[in-house]
Design a protein that fits this description.
alpha/beta; ten-stranded mixed β-sheet; four-stranded mixed β-sheet; 42% helix; globular
């Protein structure tokens, strides 16, 4: 019995020794394996470097060129999606491993921007798809939470170089909607990458939203784009216009045949730019309307005072725009200089020759007689609304949307202002603020296709006016009584340089203006 117990005890000790040795071996193996660069670890490290080449499901924003501390509203949900969805890398792009990337390569040559076409959001007519916050400014969140005013602008990709001049005089957040059909999406992404790598202000302040038509869906992969990424990373930062012109050469003759006259969705783009703004107030100019130096800061101070007074919830503060002769050496930087430009015939009111009725209500002759003051303030109230009034203004972000049925040219801005008028908004001119627009515009620069688009939009106005009147249960302009007499559906729009066309345009403008003056005189 004792021998049996001793034998069993010996076996237990042997078994315990074997288990102990096995545990030591396994522990040593785990420690050694963890310290080795496994394939999984290398893949994880590589994934951490792919942020600019991938897009998370949700399409809220692409990662920036460098880590960003600021987040876009809704980014927490986006990060949650990122944990449960796999990263999608562009098939045409090979992301180099860490060892393959030279340390002295410019940042712009390494990361690549992209979007997932499957995540585009349709407009209400399902004609266009948009990708909001395709690229987010690094300081976007901070600026949007600390400023009262955001600038939202729209542009086609071939005018995107204008952003360089625009951002010089604007230090706040900027929401830019870009139209990028077909291969222009690829061009736009690469050009945005170029702008961000060359311009720190654009990199920090600007968020981009990309839009393309369903019938000409944007593409990022094309045989003609091979090698373009390497070229973009080495292009001259001092030549933004020339760089864009070079990139646009990838467009084929077949594309250019339809591209120029393709109906440009101005109002959709304006709505997206405005929606992208996260501030209480918005300013929605076109991308080629340049503010004066320091105007943004003056507007911030002005708006703070208006907020403190709390005396107007439906006020729009009008900022006049002036056309500046291309023969001028520079843009006027203050009102005193602008008035001298006007005196020397180097500046004139926006659309003064093309369609001056757009600015009649502002009475800019009166504004020009008011000398510049040290402080930005109200100059005067617009007393009489005249149909087709088209001011650039600052207002709260809850103003009526731009009606997206008006596509192409004509009846785009002025219909939104008309709705504001019916809704009870008041317009006030600011005393010192104005923006500049390079070049004198004229009928001679208007192509036939643009005139045809304007005629089509004129024909849509009757329905729009009836809807607006019904929505607000108001018709302060007595528009419904005038629609038949105005007969906008059959108004012909002038174009080109012939004397006949100029005469037609003048007669159209005079007819509308005379009707307004006659109407106002009876009030």
């Amino acid at each position: 019995m004792l021998r049996l117990f001793t034998k069993s005890r010996g076996r237990c000790l042997e078994l315990a020794l074997v288990v102990t040795l096995l545990n030591l071996f396994l522990s040593f193996t785990v420690v050694w394996y963890s310290s080795s660069p496994t394939e999984n670890n290398r893949q994880a490290a590589q994934d951490s470097r792919l942020l600019l080449s991938v897009e998370y499901t949700g399409d809220s924003a692409l990662a920036s060129e460098s880590p960003v501390s600021d987040t876009v509203p809704g980014s927490e949900a986006g990060s949650t999606n990122a944990q449960v969805n796999t990263l999608k890398v562009k098939p045409s792009e090979e992301v180099p491993s860490e060892a393959e990337v030279p340390k002295d390569v410019p940042n712009s040559a390494i990361p690549k921007l992209s979007i997932d076409n499957r995540l585009g959001v349709f407009d209400k007519f399902r004609r266009f798809q948009s990708h909001m916050f395709s690229v987010v400014g690094e300081a976007w969140s901070v600026l949007s939470s600390s400023r009262a005013l955001c600038l939202g602008a729209q542009t086609s990709v071939d005018r995107l170089y204008e952003l360089v001049e625009l951002v010089k005089n604007w230090s706040g957040p900027m929401s830019i909607a870009v139209f990028v059909p077909d291969i222009e999406l690829a061009v736009g992404l690469r050009y945005i990458q170029y702008l961000r790598s060359c311009n720190q202000a654009i990199e920090k302040q600007v968020s981009f939203h990309l839009i393309y038509p369903v019938e000409h869906q944007g593409t990022t992969n094309h045989p003609d784009l091979q090698g373009l990424d390497e070229v973009v990373g080495n292009m001259d930062c001092k030549q933004p216009k020339q760089v864009l012109k070079y990139l646009l050469n990838v467009r084929s003759k077949e594309m250019l045949a339809w591209r120029e006259s393709y109906p440009y969705p101005q109002n959709l783009l304006r709505n997206l730019a405005k929606t992208g703004c996260q501030t209480n107030y918005t300013y929605i100019p076109d991308i080629d309307m340049v503010p004066t130096p320091g105007m943004d800061r003056q507007l911030e101070t002005f708006l703070q005072k208006q907020e403190g007074a709390k005396n107007c919830s439906k006020c729009a503060y009008v900022i006049p725009t002036y056309e500046i002769s291309i023969n001028s050496t520079h843009l006027p930087s203050n009102k005193t200089e602008l008035l001298q430009f006007v005196k020397d015939k180097q500046a004139r009111q926006f659309h003064q020759a093309l369609y001056s009725i757009n600015q009649k209500s502002s009475n800019l002759k009166k504004w020009e007689k008011i000398p510049e003051t040290e402080e930005l303030d109200l100059a005067y109230k617009v007393e009489k609304y005249i149909f087709k009034y088209e001011p650039l203004y600052i207002a709260r972000g809850d103003t009526p949307a731009f009606d997206e049925r008006f596509i192409g040219f004509g009846m785009t801005r002025n219909t939104q202002v008309y709705e504001m008028y019916v809704a009870g908004y008041s317009f006030y001119l600011l005393n010192n603020a104005f923006t500049n627009h390079w070049g004198f515009q004229s009928i001679s620069s208007r192509p036939e296709w643009r005139a045809r688009q304007q005629e089509q939009n004129n024909a849509r106005f009757d329905e729009f006016a009836k809807e607006v009147s019904a929505h607000y249960n108001a018709d302060p302009y007595k528009m419904l009584d005038q629609l038949k007499k105005m007969n906008l559906k059959h108004v012909k729009v002038a174009y080109g340089v012939t004397k006949k066309n100029k005469t037609v345009a003048k007669k159209e403008e005079k007819k509308v203006l005379d009707e307004d003056i006659k109407k106002l005189g009876t009030e």
